[in-house]
């Protein structure tokens, strides 16, 4: 009996007698954590609350928000997921020194990388990040304080379908915008490669639906879901401003925030639009040849106090930022970008994505010996509402890009074409807003997904954007 009792006492841990002031609690109510399970995201020496240790609404590397104790002890897995979530948040905006940009771009002698913009651009490394720097001219003068505030708001807008703006730098009349580098090719290059015209990486219907859904989602976010107390307009929607990444062929919209930071729109846009429209109407009624003169600002480039009044030059064209084929009728007259003009540009991109053709091109007519201008809008309207032979389905199959090998849901394609034609209505009031457009595209994407699953399209095929 003695030996057995001694053995039991040797194996049991030493127990402290219960204190009279604190009642003994059952061991299951307060589980102990091992060293590997101790949460590391809340330092004991500092207050981890957002109000005490956050910077600009985003937590620093040594502070995270408190977690409810009702969920139990945090494990190592939860800590790593929080760390990954923090790294996915946008960084605070950076105002780069101009000398820093000169050093990173080899005094701007590096070869431009992207063709997604008519402005000059360079790929370089800034503060350890791979970026693309775009140079643009100010359309109007912006105070430094207003520019910093605007940059801070835009940089905090973050979506997977939008190339992230990291910072900017100002030098004279130029602003340099630094965006994250996106490894991919522009949508225009994916659809039209002169070296291999009969091949496209977007050779399946679902790949094009994915691009359409991403662009619609990104533009709807810019218009309606940024959470900023301002109306945002992209003003540069075109196929060359959409980058397609591999291997999943996800699309990203480039140049977000350019219209605001370059001064392409301001609070006087409505007055300027009315003045330009009235001047154009007066010239048309006066028999001035039916052309529009160039609209500029008096004293442009003479300083922040330059007069915003409009004047005319001897040129017979409008002078503003825009791309042929993507400009809405009212934008061509006034030069004022609105959300409805963005919807028009998206409609052109959607029709371009379905047909693979340019917004408009010229074909030589042998009989008349003249070049005839053909528009993608006119050909799309003829495909769904024309009177040609073969019926509506036959006309649509001839209009859709032949490189899809006639493998696509005809009903979904027809609805997309009609949606694109709604977006390019001449009257901006008859165009839908992007929230409605995005909803329709998402619905058609799900229908296309069901169609794709029903025909068992093979998925074990690897495709590369680059030529082989």
From TrEMBL:
Stretches assigned to the Protein kinase domain: 67-446
Pfam family, one: PK_Tyr_Ser-Thr
Domain of life where this protein originates: Eukaryota
Composition bias, Low complexity: 44-84
Region (Disordered): 1-84, 285-315
Name of the protein in its database record: Protein kinase domain-containing protein
